[in-house]
């Protein structure tokens, strides 16, 4: 945009704002009037101290300046199934500006009991494409990049490039080990989550750390505890929500993260156990 267009956009947004809130209709009108994307309008509004009205229930927890931080972040979600569907939904509604959704699979009938993005009409469709459509439906200002690919040590550096935070939505431990090691080597914060039956766990790996020892003992079984205990609908929702809270804190530099701690969630007995562990320093490749 040239200087005059930028000034005109800012004047328009100020005129359409209701106090410091920018209604969705005004955001959409500005995008059409000035031939901009909804993301470009949202960033300008946040820079001006105007809060898109969709986030007004965030404001007692997340300031407008922090909302801009979230908007300027890039979060990569590895796996778009049980955990991944909830991760994607919550991150988009939170206002994370760019989501990269990675998964090689299509929806199958056994996904229907717990995977938020699955539905009979989606059977046979690529999970990443359904995820992208969902993000565009619930928050069109979010830029979403679907990648129908498997995460491996070889593909990792390209898939994770530019990530602010990486979210672990995987369902097999060999790939999870590779994700942990790749994030370690690239010094990218990782929020780990795992589920099985009534149980789940969450931990964070920040640059300089290595949490591979937390899951190293499970490398021998590809599907791990999920294959043994299955997964009901509620476990991924709980664990994914805790992961998104962790990602939000990491992006904003706020609160106490799960660095050097692991939460073990027992929904059968409604207990949460905190396990503290000694830091394991990352080893340069």
Name a few traits of the molecule:
285 residues; 39% helix; 8-stranded mixed sheet; alpha/beta; 2 domains; Rossmann fold; two-stranded parallel sheet
Describe what this molecule looks like in 3D.
The chain has 285 residues and is an alpha/beta fold. It has 2 domains: 3-60; 73-276, Rossmann fold. It is built from 10 helices and 10 strands. The strands form 2 sheets. The protein has an 8-stranded mixed sheet, sandwiched between helices. Helix 6 links the parallel strand 4 (98-102) and strand 5 (143-147). Mean pLDDT is 93; it is low at 217-222.
* CATH topology (fold) name of the largest domain: Rossmann fold
Low-confidence stretches are 217-222
Number of domains: 2
Which class of the largest domain in CATH terms? Alpha Beta
Average pLDDT over all residues: 93
* Portion in beta strands: 15-25%
> Biggest sheet, strands in spatial order?
5-4-3-6-7-8-9-10
CATH architecture of the largest domain: 3-Layer(aba) Sandwich
Count of runs of 4 or more consecutive helical residues:
10
Helical/strand content category: alpha/beta
Give the CA-CA distance, first to last residue. Answer: 44 Å
**Largest sheet at a glance?**
8 strands, mixed
Q: Which range best describes the helical content: under 10%, 10-25%, 25-40%, 40-55%, 55-70% or over 70%?
A: 25-40%
- SSE ordering: HEHHEHEHEHEHEHEEHHEE
Q: Could you give the count of β-strands?
A: 10
Backbone shape? globular
CATH homologous superfamily assignment of the largest domain: NAD(P)-binding Rossmann-like Domain
Q: From the alpha-carbon coordinates, what is the Rg to the nearest angstrom?
A: 20 Å
């Amino acid at each position: 945009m040239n200087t005059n267009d930028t000034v005109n956009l800012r004047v328009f947004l100020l005129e359409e704002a209701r106090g410091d809130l920018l209604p969705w209709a005004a955001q959409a009108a500005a995008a059409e009037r000035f031939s901009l994307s909804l993301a470009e309008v949202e960033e300008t509004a946040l820079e001006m101290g105007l809060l898109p009205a969709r986030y007004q229930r965030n404001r007692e927890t997340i300031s407008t300046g922090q909302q801009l931080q979230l908007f300027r972040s890039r979060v990569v979600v590895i796996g778009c199934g049980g955990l991944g569907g909830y991760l994607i939904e919550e991150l988009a509604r939170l206002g994370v500006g760019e989501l990269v959704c990675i998964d090689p699979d299509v929806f199958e009938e056994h996904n229907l009991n717990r995977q938020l993005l699955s539905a009979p009409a989606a059977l046979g469709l690529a999970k990443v494409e359904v995820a992208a459509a969902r993000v565009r439906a619930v928050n069109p200002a979010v830029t979403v990049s679907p990648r129908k690919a498997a995460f491996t040590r070889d593909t990792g550096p390209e898939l994770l490039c530019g990530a602010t935070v990486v979210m672990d939505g995987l369902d097999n431990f060999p790939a999870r080990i590779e994700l942990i090691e790749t994030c370690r080597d690239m010094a990218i914060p990782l929020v780990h989550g795992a589920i099985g039956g009534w149980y789940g766990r969450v931990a964070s790996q920040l640059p300089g750390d290595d949490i591979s020892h937390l899951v190293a003992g499970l490398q021998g079984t590809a599907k791990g505890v999920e294959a043994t205990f299955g997964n009901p609908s509620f476990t991924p929702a709980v664990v994914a929500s805790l992961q998104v809270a962790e990602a939000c804190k990491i992006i904003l530099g706020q609160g106490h993260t799960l660095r050097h701690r692991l939460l073990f969630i027992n929904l059968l007995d409604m207990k949460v156990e905190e396990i503290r562990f000694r830091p394991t320093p990352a080893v340069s490749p």
